[in-house]
Write a structure and sequence with these properties.
By secondary structure, the chain is of the alpha/beta class. Helix content is 55%, strand content 16%. It has eight helices and six strands; from the N terminus they run E-H-E-H-E-H-E-H-H-E-H-E-H-H. Strands 1-2-3-4-5-6 form a six-stranded parallel beta sheet, with helices on one face. Helix 5 packs parallel to helix 6.
Length: 165
């Protein structure tokens, strides 16, 4: 299976490190979510040197991403919907992060988080986000299209006519 993220609850670097070490032992595919703040940068630096995969989460700017990547984060998670909520362009932040990582050929992957609607998914994919955390209701919205429903109904109507003949 792919990566599975778990989140630390501690607010200080020492506590984050202790928690992360513990949960990282659970399975090889564990990725520990560490917040994009000063304590999180310190914890990310220590953990990444120990081989613990870190998701630098609650990222809201390219500056935070720069620090997380420099500390060794395997993943960064910009929160698109929450940025949109305060009038900023969350998808622009994702685009900027992806461009930065590509330009410097860095291995850190982008997880587009706080996805609110199908448009977020399309733009995140076009921008080059590696992963998106998509709520189930958004997945359902992504698969629905009125022309598909109309097409299925027409096929069924046509089939019914053929069967009557």
């Amino acid at each position: 299976p792919g990566p599975v993220s778990t989140e630390v609850l501690s607010q200080d670097a020492s506590g984050m490190i202790d928690e992360a070490r513990e949960v990282a032992r659970w399975a090889d595919n564990i990725v520990v979510k560490i917040p994009a703040n000063l304590e999180g940068v310190e914890a990310t630096s220590v953990l990444s040197k120990e081989g613990v995969k870190v998701n630098f989460t609650l990222c809201f700017s390219l500056n935070q991403t720069l620090l997380g990547v420099a500390a060794g984060a395997s993943f960064v998670s910009p929160f698109v919907g929450r940025l949109d909520d305060i009038g900023e362009d969350g998808m622009k932040v994702v685009e900027d992060i992806v461009k930065f990582l590509r330009f410097y050929q860095l291995p850190t992957q982008v997880i587009a988080a706080s996805i609110r609607h199908p448009q977020h998914c399309m733009v995140a994919a076009k921008a080059g986000a590696h992963i998106a955390t998509v709520p189930y209701k958004v997945l359902l919205q992504m698969i629905q299209h009125p022309l598909t429903d109309i097409g299925v109904k027409r096929f069924m109507d046509d089939w019914s006519k053929v069967m009557k003949d």
